[in-house]
Amino acid sequence: MEYKYHFIYKITNKINNKFYIGAHSTNNIEDGYMGSGKMINKAIDKYGLENFKKDILEYCDDQESLFKRESEIVTKELVKDKQCYNIQVGGRHFSTKGFTTAIDKEGNHLWVPVEKFHNSNEYVGIMKGRVSVRLNDGTIKSISKEEFDNNKENYLSINKGYVCVKLNDGNYKRIKSNDFDPNSKEYTAMFKGTIIVSDKNGKHFRTSIDDPKIKSSEYQYLTKGRGVYKDKDGNIICAKIDDPRVLSGELVGHTKGYKWTDEQKERRKNKNYISKSIGKIGITKNGINKFIYKSELSSYIENGWKIGMVQNNPPKKMMNKDGIQKLILIEDQEKYLKDGWQLGGLKKEKGNRIYIHKPGESINLHILKEELEKYLKNGYVVGRIMKDQHGMVHVHNKKLNKGSFIKKKDLEKYLEEGWELGMLKSKNKN
User: Which overall architecture, per CATH, does domain 5-94 show?
Assistant: First the structure.
């Protein structure tokens, strides 16, 4: 469609002097157009149209020259201006490459360079504390995480039943999960070859698995130092391994208490049963391990990957001596053997062993019950003392039938009040 007028305009908030600059083509200069930017429209809704004025800055001969002029005026520098409502640079062919949408401390939505976003505490992601959901009628909506958690029965995951893939031309497409083919030549998994990491500021983002900042430890895996646990209500929680709730036993491993169903047991007995891992192979590069489909192997080999997986943690062996077991480095094995230690852990004789310790010492012994008497004569007491873990220690009070996980600095106070070191022994234990 051919337009008669092409001009650059400026809309100014008469209350706070914030402004918006845009380009417009029309056959009616008095058409009342007040911009299409998200921030300017939100501002108009907030303050009222009567509190804004519009000025035409200059006219252009055609749309091509109009958008060229807009790109010269609405620059990255202008977008960064806190008085500016624009959130993207001007021009018809705006590219978001290298930028991300963020919210500053004043609540403004801005296009911010990715590097600046990750290396500054001035911004947060626009979806922080929010989640996109699908209503029962199919409508997609962004809501607060609190609202989602309190009304889960009313919402569906926006991605349930779908997966996003990357086409060969670089575009993305959502397809049904059941239609996804890992060996497809038309597309690949959306995040193939990438991983979510955290930077020094604790911000999470996705990067290439080959990013050198991972190897240098500038970026950390999200799972480093973390585990998957469940609380008493069965809620699954990802927490740090030294989380006080984990150390106290409030959170336990998410598979604790899990039992195979009869169906699962029978399926695994079936010689024709095929595990989900079948067809995959382990490879490594620059200290990074991953599982891939065998059909993908050649492309990874071409990019420097090797078959096999490196062991990031030094190999260890379990050894025991005099009722004590210890996990030691393989390189120290000979030293322990010469000192009378034996390979392997203590053999578990269910119901026939008991933990003891000597007050004032931090060593637990796991002895046969028939040996208990001689140890009691030598000052040992029944029970297992938990070693100091990150400044914390277990104590219990038999009279109160109560146990607690306290700071070591408070230990003396608890001992004076009749508490004892160690965990409270359950009455239903042998």
Answer: 3-Layer(aba) Sandwich (3.40)
- Select from 236, 225, 251 the least CA-distant residue to 405: 251
Domain ranges of the chain: 5-94, 259-307, 313-346
Could you tell me which residues come within 8 angstroms of residue 271 by beta carbon, excluding any fewer than 6 positions away?
none
Q: Which two tokens stand for residue 181?
A: 């083919």
Tell me the mean pLDDT in the region 130-139. Answer: 72
* Residue 83: pLDDT over 90: yes
Confidence grade of residue 21 (pLDDT, cut at 50, 70, 90) = very high
- The pLDDT assigned to 84 comes to 93
In a 10 Å sphere around its CB, with 0-12 CB exposed, 13-18 middle and 19+ buried, how is residue 86 labelled? buried
Residue 187 pairs with which residues in a beta bridge? 167
Nearby residues of 277 by Cβ (< 8 Å), 6 or more positions away: 291
Q: Judge residue 212's burial from the number of C-beta atoms within 10 Å of its C-beta, 0-12 exposed, 13-18 middle, 19 or more buried.
A: exposed
CB 288 within 8 A of CB 217: no
Cα separation values, 224 from 23, 197, 255, Å: 49, 10, 19
